[in-house]
Write a structure and sequence with these properties.
With 401 residues, this protein is an alpha/beta fold. The chain folds into two domains: 192 residues, 3-Layer(bba) Sandwich (FAD/NAD(P)-binding domain), CATH 3.50.50; 153 residues, D-Amino Acid Oxidase, subunit A, domain 2 (D-Amino Acid Oxidase, Chain A, domain 2). Strands 1, 2, 8, 9, 10, 11, 17 and 18 form an eight-stranded mixed beta sheet that branches. Strand 9 and strand 10 form a beta hairpin. Helix 1 packs parallel to helix 6, helix 1 packs parallel to helix 9 and helix 2 crosses helix 9. The longest helix is centred in the C-terminal third of the chain and has 18 residues. The radius of gyration is 21 Å and the shape is globular. It starts with a strand and ends in an 11-residue tail after the last helix. The model has no long low-confidence stretch (mean pLDDT 97). Its EC number is 1.-.-.-. Pfam families: DAO (PF01266). This is NAD(P)/FAD-dependent oxidoreductase.
């Protein structure tokens, strides 16, 4: 590790590693990159504890396009991230997403979102009750007004695999990755000048990238800045099913999708089991080190919704559970990617609110373009820049789980 870097990235999970990769892989960048990660095990990283899914079913064009790039990048991942003989396969499972609308308001959102998705070229379809019942005969559809299904370009994949792939390739291309913690960030007027590490080292920095997930606000405050991101707890449950409906679908070779019930409960296959979760009834900010699962959510929220939706989900048993953190953007639940308007060499890549894995490739590319070119060269992500935080101008996305 040197004492001066062109770019210092605070946080080495999927976002930080993606930024490092896209910088080092670009022939127009000839600088040095340091990634600082406080936990080398990544055991409590949002990346490691997520459901690791990707979808194009959003209501805003920029989010659709972000996921379209992410999907293609995941498909090409083994070749793109090859280091020596290692070609990291993310084991992408193309199960798709299935949104169910049970109210007129939910139906309207699906119809409006579908128009956006189709305009972007997403492979989504709307189904009425009969079409839904034919595709997934295990479902009780009596209360469903409309369904939206992703026929391709959606599914789930290896969460730690994508993070490790980015990190290993970035290191192979010359990035330095250190196990340490940024405890202070120095500024000279409107310019960040250095970071101080817990080990005592001071690193001169040309640009600092905030990729510290749920701890984004702590990192920003070190530089005298602010971002409305806080840790929100999400508990995931893996359950066994006595009479599994997997294989009963009449589409996609019998495979079941990730289903989002009108109640907000979601469920998808996970090997021979199923993975499920729900938005908590109460959703306060939690301590950065609070990873105790909310065990009661399964009995109180998830099981009743699933048992109502499918007879096969009446007899289910939890076999594992864990809690992870959303880096929750309290302004509008959407990513914040861009420079601070005054402190121009401080770059945000935060607030993904549960979408970090699927949006990581596009976010990493976007940050690298800002640093290398001073602007976007591929997908214009100025809509999700930091300016909207200053102006208190939410960037609304209706399809948030």
């Amino acid at each position: 590790m040197k004492t001066q870097y062109d770019v210092v990235i605070v946080g080495g999970a999927v976002i930080g590693s993606a930024v490092a990769y896209f910088l080092m892989a670009n022939p127009d960048f000839g600088g040095s990159v340091l990634v600082v990660e406080r936990d080398p095990t990544y055991a409590k990283a949002s990346t490691s504890l997520s459901a690791a899914s990707i979808r194009t079913q959003f209501s805003n064009p920029i989010n659709v396009k972000i996921s379209q790039f992410g999907y293609q990048f995941i498909k090409d991942f083994p070749e793109t991230m090859q280091v020596g003989d290692d070609k990291p396969d993310l084991n992408f499972h193309s199960g798709g997403y299935l949104y169910l609308a049970g109210t007129p308001e939910q139906e309207q959102v699906l119809r409006e979102s579908h128009e956006v998705q189709r305009a972007c070229g997403a492979d989504t379809v709307l189904w009425d009750q009969d079409q839904l019942a034919r595709a997934f005969p295990h479902l009780n559809v009596e209360d469903i007004r409309l369904a939206s299904y992703g026929q391709s370009g959606e599914g789930w994949f290896n969460n730690t695999g994508i993070m490790a792939g980015f990190r290993n390739k970035a290191r192979a291309l010359g990035a330095d990755v250190v196990t340490d913690e940024v405890v202070a960030i120095a500024r000279n007027g409107d310019t960040v000048t250095s970071v101080t590490l817990k080990s005592g080292a001071t690193i001169q920095a040309g640009t600092v990238v905030n990729a510290s997930g749920p701890r984004a606000a702590l990192t920003a405050r070190m530089a005298g800045l602010d971002i409305p991101v806080e840790p929100r707890k999400r508990t995931l449950f893996v359950f066994d099913c006595a009479k599994s409906p997997e294989g009963t679908a009449t589409v996609n070779q019998g495979r079941l999708p990730l289903m989002i019930d009108p109640t907000g409960v979601f469920c998808r296959p996970e090997g021979r089991f199923f993975l499920s979760g729900a938005v908590p009834v109460e959703d306060p900010a939690v301590d950065w080190d609070d990873f105790e699962p909310r065990y009661e959510e399964f009995e109180d929220i998830i099981w009743p919704a699933l048992a109502t939706r499918a007879q096969g989900f009446e007899a289910i048993k939890v076999v594992n559970q864990w809690a992870g953190h959303y880096d929750f953007n309290t302004l509008d639940h959407n990513l914040v990617v861009g420079r601070h308007p005054q402190v121009r060499n401080f770059v945000f890549a935060n607030g993904f609110s549960g979408h970090g894995l699927q949006q990581g490739p596009a976010a990493g590319r976007a940050v690298s373009e800002l640093i290398i070119y001073g602007g976007y060269r591929t997908l214009d992500m100025s809509e999700v820049g930091y300016e909207r935080i200053v102006e208190n101008r939410p960037f609304l996305e209706k399809a948030v789980i």
